[in-house]
What does this fold into?
Amino acid sequence: MYRDQTRFLIAVDCIVFGFDGEHLKILLVKRALEPEKDKWSLMGGFVKPGESLDEAAQNVLNLNTGLKGVYLEQIQAYGDPLRDPIERTLSVTYFALIDIHKYETQINDEYHAEWFLLKDMPQLIFDHDEMVETAKRKIRYKAALHPILFELLPKKFTIPQLQNLYEDVYNTQIDNRNFIRKLTSTGLLIKLPEKDKSGSKKGAFYFKLDKKKYKANFQAFLNLIPKPDKLVMG
It folds into this structure.
């Protein structure tokens, strides 16, 4: 029954987003093989026998960057017959969210991985630009409902850093007082006694995430930004 069916390759492509405390960035690699060799690409690879899609994505991420245990979520499949000029290849995309400072020393130089500001990233190979745009929409929608953006932050962070992150993700200005009021009402944050004084003498208090409340309230997160059906790509 299966003998007459056409066989084709399955790949995974990982869209890795990182936050450095001020800006949202994307991690890209130089493609190591033809076609489009040495051009900028998402990090990807073929699914090996015995691997699930999730395992393949985790292994691709680890091989290219040394990263393990990061937030990784499947987005969608891309199956245009002409998307890869060499072989019919179906690609399943994932996005990963990481704190850049936590992992910056683990990036694998062999694959020429490099961070780019999201707004300044170079043109990518094949349909990878489309994949990035889809990932941005997915994150914006998901972050409006769940506190996934905390995955991009260090263990202790300031309110200005958190606001910078939301503004970068949604490409918009957020009212400071309203943001703080809504954030406080979630009960997700624990205020720490120490301050970050790198930006001013007065400084800003550090906060940390209440992990128990984070897990308990993940499916009932109070919106900090516009409703998902009103989100517009920037």
Observations:
- The chain is about 25% helix and 25% strand.
